[in-house]
Each structure stands twice: as C-alpha cells, then as structure tokens.
Specification:
The complex is a heterodimer of chains A (about 260) and B (about 250). Chain A is about 85% helix and about 0% strand. Chain A has about 260 residues and is mostly helical. Chain A has one domain (about 40-255). Chain B has a single domain (about 20-40, about 75-235), classed as Rossmann fold. In chain B, helix 5 crosses helix 6. The longest helix of chain B has 17 residues, at about 170-185. Classes of the chains: A mainly alpha (about 260), B alpha/beta (about 250). Chains A and B meet through helix 5 of A and helix 2, helix 4 and helix 6 of B.
C-alpha cells in the first residue's frame, strides 16, 4: 500500500516535471520564433479583436458585479466602526490591485482561451499543423506568436475596463443602495489613488495575458486522441490557466505590495 | 535516393516499424501496401521527418535526416512534398490562401501569387472558379487535388501520398491515380504512395509490402499477379487464409 502510494506519487511527479519542461520548451521556441521572424501585424490585430474586443462585454459584466458585491460587503464591515466613507477606496484598491486583472484574465480564459485550445487542437488532430510544417511554415510563428502578442497587449486594457466597471458599480451601490454621499465616495478614492497600484495592476494583467496564452496554445498544439482528446485538452487548458493565474497573482502580489 | 536503414519506431510498448530497410531510387514510383494499422502512415512520416524514429536512419540524397534539428528540416520539406490522407487543408482559409500559403507567408504580392496558384490548380485538373471557396465547400476528390496543388507549390523532387484515395468513389479513385501518374511524369518526381487499392498497380512501377513493421516484399508491379510471395499472394487477392493473421476477428 505504502510502496504503491510512493510509486504513484513518483510517477505523477515525473509527469508533472516533464509537462513543465515541455511547456517551458514550447514557450522558449515561441519566443525564439517571435524574435527571429517577421511579425504579421494583421494577424495580431485580428486576434486582439477576437480576444479583447469580443471579451469586453463579459469582462465589464463581471467587473461590475464584483465591484457592486465588494461595495456591499465592505459596507457591512465598515459601518460597525463608523468608517463607511472608506467604501470607495476599498473598492478601488481591490479592483485595481486584484480583481480587475484576475477576473479579466479568468473571463478571457473562459471565452477566448478555451476557443484557442479548441481551434489548435482540432488543427492538430486533422493534421493541419503537420501540413503547415511540411510547407516550411514556422508553426509557432504562424499559430502562437500572434495570439501571444495580442493577448499580452490587450489584457491590460481589459483589466482597466474591468476595474472601471467595478468602481462604477461600487459607486452606484454605495450611493443609491447604501446611501453614501457621492462626494465622499469619489473624494476618498481620489485621495487614495497611487500610481503604483495602477502600474502594478497593469503589470499583473500583462503577465496573466502571456501565461494564459502560452498554456492555452500549448494544450491545443499538442492535443491528441481525436475529439475526446481535444475535449480533455480544453478542460485542462482552462483549469491549468486559471490555477496559474491565481498562483502568479499571489507571487506577484508578494513581490509588489508587501513592504 | 531515399534509404531507410534499421528503422525502428516505438510508441510506448508498441513497436510500429522494426529494423525496417527500404531503398527508393530517384524517379521511382513506389506503392506501399499493407493492412490497416500496420504503420504505413508512421513510416511515411518518418521518411519526411514529421516523426522522429526511435532508432535507425533515413538517408535522403546522402544526408541522414534523423540527425537534423526541427529548423534544419526545412530543406527536407522543400525536397519532399507530403499529400495528407484527408488533404489537411486549413479550414479557415480559402482555396487560394491554402494553395498560396507559403508565398503569402513570405509576403509576396497577391497579384504575383494568383497566376501561380491558378497554374497549380490547372495542373491538378481544377479551374480558378474554386479560388474563393473554403474546404468545407469542396468534395473529397477536390480537397485531395487542392492538397496536391498546395504541395506542388514547393516544386518538390519527391512526392509522398498518404492513402490519397481513401473514401472516394471508384471513378474518382481512377482520376486521382491518373493525376498522380501524370504529376509523376510531368514533374519528374520520385513518388511514394500508400494505398489499399490494387488499382494502384496499374500506375506504380514498384510495390513494397509492409507487414508487422518490416518490408516483406519489394518488386516490380508488372509481375505482381504472378508473384509467389505468400504475403503478396494473400493480400492482393484478399484471402483470409495465409501468413497474414486476422487480428481482432473471431474465427467461426
């Protein structure tokens, strides 16, 4: 029983390390293609539209909902201490530092990331990626690089969008539902705005954009086993991307905000 | 010349090709036959470098391509064109974009690419009316022709076809075989075709049979019906009795 457990644990550890190595190699080859070949701007704009513009609706909706809930939750706690005037800064800081970049990334993973894995996975199992290779086309440059650049550029904008909707929704809830003075809400935010909060939030969004694209393209690029295999690849890409974003968020928070 | 020496490919516990030896001379038209699941496609993909063998060598014009890195394989792909079983056309691109993809990626102007694409389409018996169509708007036979036209854009010296007639009606099978023969003669290529269709013997000059990971026979197609090799004898006549075992079937 004990030996069996160690056996399974060892096997899983080796598999994990192997997958991590493959992912690292995939990322390295992608960056190599990025710097060694001419960038196709038309494709980058196409993917910026697909990943970014088409995600604006869901990102705004989630940002607004989170901001509204945050305003209510913080009111419950702050009112006990007579500090309800701080709802604004709390919503603003939480959205800028955490929820804006994280929720924007999660929504992009769910909407565009899964579609990327699905598209590349289907191309893999129908030999379209092999065909590109036999036609002397750099498959990473053709399939991965434009998506990677598009997501990395567009994520900070989505994060800003998510944050703005959150702060605005927090305002609506605080003023119209909780009876907070509108000037108190906005003034408290203005007094607490720090450039580092915004910059660090944007850095997080850039890192998340890079990570989620590498993982979702990797899972699609190496999908195998027919339609079932593509389905498994999509599930794994979504789960691993969200996990990576959450873990990266913690690491970045530790590096950026702990003084 | 293509030489395969001691070529072995294993996937986990399963060995697909076992110490396989095969030589294909320049200008030869070779048909590779064998039962489904024998690893014919894996063999072809090893020849072109899409699959790396577990051991052994693939020597093309004196160069062992198994020693090459991914980036160094580009000259091999230029030399050896590969026509995929189901054409592997890119779904999101039109016929024009599929056939002209290599030049489009090199930023050639469209007005220069278009005549070349039309010429290649004509070579495979298609006209320019299909340029703007997408793969899902083409029949199976048309897809295979477009796939061949795309491969011809690189003017390869060797053309490798992976089961080009699978799933086609007998008339289209004949047309595709004639097209392969015509391309072989006009482009002066070395041609390797995997086929289950015995009609291919009317077009190929040599035939090789893959069985249990090895080439068990190679010889001219003109004598094939007189051939006494037990594997060939059983296979081309579709006999159930013989050295080729019935895997996965329960005998009555």
């Amino acid at each position: 029983m004990g030996i069996n457990f160690i056996d399974v644990l060892g096997k899983k550890t080796i598999e994990f390390c192997q997958a991590l190595g493959d992912l690292g190699l995939f990322g390295y080859e992608t960056l190599e293609s990025l710097f060694s070949t001419k960038l196709k701007l038309k494709k980058v704009f196409y993917h910026m539209n697909y990943i970014g513009v088409n995600s604006v609706g869901v990102v705004g909706l989630v940002g607004g909902t989170v901001g509204a809930a945050l305003a209510m939750q913080s009111y419950i706690g702050l009112e006990r201490f007579g500090a309800s005037q701080f709802i604004g800064p709390i919503v603003y800081i939480a959205m800028t530092r955490e929820f804006g970049p994280v929720f924007a990334a999660i929504m992009v993973i769910g909407r565009a990331g899964s579609a990327i894995t699905s598209e590349l996975g289907t191309m893999r199992i129908t030999e379209q990626i092999d065909a590109l290779q036999t036609l002397c086309i750099d498959t990473k440059q053709y399939l991965v690089v434009p998506r990677l650049i598009a997501a990395t550029i567009i994520m900070p904008f989505l994060s800003i969008f998510c944050t703005l909707f959150g702060v605005a929704a927090g305002y609506v809830v605080a003023v119209y539902a909780l009876g907070i003075n509108p000037q108190v809400y906005t003034q408290a935010i203005i007094e607490n705005v720090e450039l580092t909060d915004i910059v660090n939030g944007l850095i997080k969004a850039i890192v998340f954009g890079f990570l989620l694209t590498i993982i979702t393209t990797y899972k699609g690029f190496y999908a195998r086993g027919g339609a079932t295999g593509v389905g498994i690849a999509i599930t794994q890409s979504v789960v691993y991307s969200i996990l990576t974003v959450v873990v990266a968020d913690y690491i970045l928070t530790s590096l950026m905000f702990i003084k | 010349m293509i030489e395969l020496k001691n070529l072995t490919k294993s996937f986990g516990d399963k060995t697909v090709t076992k110490n396989l030896d095969l030589t294909v001379d320049d200008g030869e038209f070779l048909a590779i036959i064998g039962r489904s699941g024998e690893g014919k496609s894996v063999l072809l993909k090893q020849i072109i470098g899409l699959i790396h063998p577990t051991s052994g060598s693939v020597i093309i014009d004196g160069q062992d391509i198994t020693k090459l890195s991914k980036n160094d394989l580009k000259p091999v792909f230029k030399k050896c064109g590969y026509v995929f079983q189901f054409a592997a056309l890119l779904d999101s691109l039109s016929v024009f974009e599929n056939v002209g993809i290599t030049l489009l990626e090199e930023d050639w102007p469209v007005e220069k690419i278009k005549p070349l694409v039309i010429e290649k389409l004509r070579n495979v018996g298609l006209d320019e009316s299909i340029l703007d169509r997408y793969p899902n708007e083409l029949s199976g036979g048309m897809k295979k022709r477009v796939g061949l036209a795309r491969t011809l854009m690189l003017s390869p010296k060797v053309l490798i076809y992976d089961e080009p007639t699978t799933g086609l009606d007998p008339i289209t099978v004949r047309l595709i075989h004639e097209l392969i023969k015509k391309t072989h003669i006009e482009q002066k290529t070395t041609t390797i075709v995997i086929s289950h269709d015995i009609d291919i013997f009317n077009y190929a000059t040599q035939v090789a049979m893959l069985h249990q990971g090895k080439i068990v026979y190679k010889g001219p197609t003109k004598d094939i019906w007189e051939c006494k090799n037990p594997y060939i004898y059983q296979f081309i006549r579709g006999l159930t009795e013989g050295p080729i075992e019935q895997i996965g079937f329960v005998k009555d």
